[in-house]
Amino acid sequence: MNELFQGAIKFYEEDYNNEKAFFKSLQENKPHTLFITCVDSRIDPNRLTHSKPGELYVVRNIGNLIPPFKDENDEMMEGYLATTSSIEYSICKLKVKNIIVCGHSNCGACAAVYNHDMLNEMPYVKKWLELLNPTIAKVETMRPESEHKRIWLTELQNIQQQLYNLLSYPFVEERFNRGELQIYGWYYNIMNGQILNYNLITREFKPIVRDNTH
Description:
Layout: H1 2-18, H2 20-24, E1 33-38, H3 45-49, E2 56-61, H4 81-92, E3 98-104, H5 108-112, H6 116-120, H7 123-128, H8 133-141, H9 147-166, H10 170-177, E4 182-188, E5 195-199, E6 204-207
Parallel strand pairs: 1-2, 1-3, 3-4
Antiparallel strand pairs: 4-5, 5-6
């Protein structure tokens, strides 16, 4: 813990004092992008995007999950307000122009859903990960031949499912259809540093390289 205290001191003495004008400009909260990702400690949204404080409105939870707007009974989902209220606020109040849903390799959530004994010891996690059930069902239809491939497919399908869930919100769909909101699905490979972007039209993941950025 002492390292964190020393880091806080270093931030104030070096970062803040060397860029006072910039930090004082952050009096207003005006992010351009909502970045939804996992709570995994290996994911650093600002470092992945080379963005500065004030640019990203970050929502983090286990498995980068987005509850659908309505449940199977066509009722509004009201049990996951920490995530849904943050999405609503960033779009309706802060007027972000982009949304990135960023999953990653070696995802503990995508592995945990297949470890029932472990989940039975963590009832809150188990309940939250029920949101992965549609993803699991899709993966099962692919008949993966190994556990490694099953988890990898779950990680990729999870991103696609969360984009689908995101578009189930009327205030998201309306802005997206009007071209006021751009939506992206990213897959970050921790082992090699590569980030794949999901194309909503072609429905495929491709590496983000200089000639396909926009």
